[in-house]
Write a structure and sequence with these properties.
Elements (H helix, E strand, L loop, with lengths): L1 H21 L12 H12 L6 E4 L6 H8 L3 E6 L2 H11 L4 H20 L13 H4 L2 H17 L5 H16 L3 E2 L6 E2 L2 H7 L4 H16 L6 E6 L5 H4 L4 E6 L9 H11 L6 H10 L7 H6 L12 H11 L6 H22 L3 E12 L1 E3 L2 E3 L1 H11 L3 E10 L7 E8 L1
Parallel strand pairs: 1-2, 1-6, 2-5, 6-7
Antiparallel strand pairs: 3-4, 7-11, 8-9, 10-11
Helix pairs in contact: 1-2, 2-3, 5-7, 5-8, 5-10, 7-8, 8-10, 12-13, 15-16, 16-17
Length: 411
């Protein structure tokens, strides 16, 4: 009887998750979060119906906080990147029918200004090699569009926020960037020829329609998106939390600032390359610009995370047949020292019995495997967490050794 009941509960959870994910909603406002990540978060939240307060210390695009709110929980999340805080706050906000109508009208006024060219366009953002990103026609359209949004809407208004979300979608759709690989590339000449014939005003109008469709579906629960450093969660949020679901940066030298820079430059969150480097240095796992150069002189503190497995990996990377071995070894060491600081400061905001789920992948550097999930487990056990385990979720790419894990623990 118990087994039959459990199967029925699992079926209902699967049905609900499928229906939820079939409606892209606000999760798709900016396509920065893979669909499988949304599915994992959804299944974890549905499987923990008793959790009242859910915490995500690495906000990203706000997937956990939004999913928690949709399921009637209170979702709280933090991030050190002001653009991601802005985006997640917009995604988790409640919108009234009156605000939806007002935004639709504002969109019409914006496009009218753009068509008549009766406004001074904004300057193009100082993105390096901007001509690779947008052809002259698309860049011209985006400059007028950005200026029109500023002209028609008031600062910090709902209308401006929603139109800027749609603007972010359009600027990527109209770009020459291609995201069909693990790393970003640019479209070939044939693809560019097709893209040049697109109706740009129609693209923006459809993006506004998509955003407003998601905005009209308000979560039943509440959420908070707070600017804060994940290395000291207790300074930014108040516990206790029953459940932690998060996906921290991976130890793979992927710069999130690099991936986000088109949005951040166009919206004014970044002014120049140095700002980008400073923000990446402040974030865990950042390696953009000056963040890389600073790693050469970086030294571990006396309270750094001590592990035989990590020490072995660092030694292999540092002595690899590559001139950047020492710098990359420092990068990996800093990454885990930062995560160690995070885990140490996490416990004050946890309720007794709280469950943790950290979605993270392992990495390789010059053939040396860095088992991130194993090192997370070591940290959690060392801090007194129980029932620690690493559950393999999926292969990350064609390299068989690269796997994504759910690192689970109980406080």
């Amino acid at each position: 009887m118990a087994a039959t009941l459990e199967r029925e509960q699992l079926r209902q959870r699967s049905d609900y998750t499928h229906k939820f994910n079939a409606k892209t909603g606000r999760h798709g406002w900016l396509r920065l979060t893979p669909a499988y990540s949304v599915k994992i978060v959804e299944e974890l939240i549905v499987g923990h119906a008793q959790a009242k307060r859910i915490f995500d210390p690495f906000c990203g695009t706000g997937t956990t906080a939004l999913s928690a709110a949709y399921h009637g929980h209170e979702g709280v999340t933090t991030d050190i990147n002001p653009f991601l805080v802005w985006l997640a706050q917009a995604k988790t906000a409640h919108y009234t029918p009156k605000q939806i109508v007002a935004t639709r009208k504002a969109c019409n006024s914006v496009l009218d200004l753009v068509r008549r060219r009766s406004i001074e366009p904004v300057l193009a953002p100082p993105i390096h090699n901007i001509d690779r990103w947008w052809n002259p026609q698309s860049l011209d359209f985006l400059r007028f569009l950005r200026a029109a949004i500023l002209e028609v809407t008031k600062e910090r208004s709902v209308e401006r926020t929603l139109l800027l979300i749609a603007f972010c979608r359009s600027l990527i759709e109209l770009s020459n960037a291609a995201f069909n690989h693990q790393s970003m590339s640019f479209k070939d000449d044939r693809e560019l020829g097709i893209a040049s014939k697109i109706d740009r005003a129609c693209v923006f109008a459809e993006d506004v329609k998509f955003v407003l469709s998601g905005a009209s579906e308000n979560p039943v629960g509440e959420s908070q998106v707070i600017f804060g450093d994940s290395r000291n969660p207790a300074k930014a949020v108040e516990g206790p939390f029953d459940l932690v679901i998060t996906s921290p940066p991976y130890a793979n030298r992927m710069s999130y600032i690099r991936e986000l820079r088109p949005y951040m430059y166009w919206l004014g969150f970044l002014i120049n390359g140095r700002d980008a480097g400073e923000l990446d240095w402040a974030a865990i796992g950042g390696t953009w610009g000056i963040a890389t150069s600073r790693l050469a002189d970086w030294k571990r503190s006396s309270g750094h995370f001590k592990s035989i497995h990590l020490a072995g990996a660092l030694d292999e990377i540092a002595h690899a047949d590559n001139k950047n071995g020492v710098v990359l070894a420092n990068y990996v060491a800093k990454y885990f020292d930062d995560m160690w600081a995070h885990f140490q400061c996490l416990t004050p905001v946890l309720a007794r019995g709280a469950e943790l789920h950290y979605i993270v992948g392992n990495s390789t550097f010059y053939g040396s495997l860095v088992s991130t999930e194993r090192l997370y487990a070591e940290m959690l056990k060392g801090l007194g967490f129980s029932k620690v385990e690493c559950r393999a979720i999926r292969k990350r790419n064609s390299k068989k050794e690269l796997v994504e894990f759910d690192v689970v623990a109980r406080w």
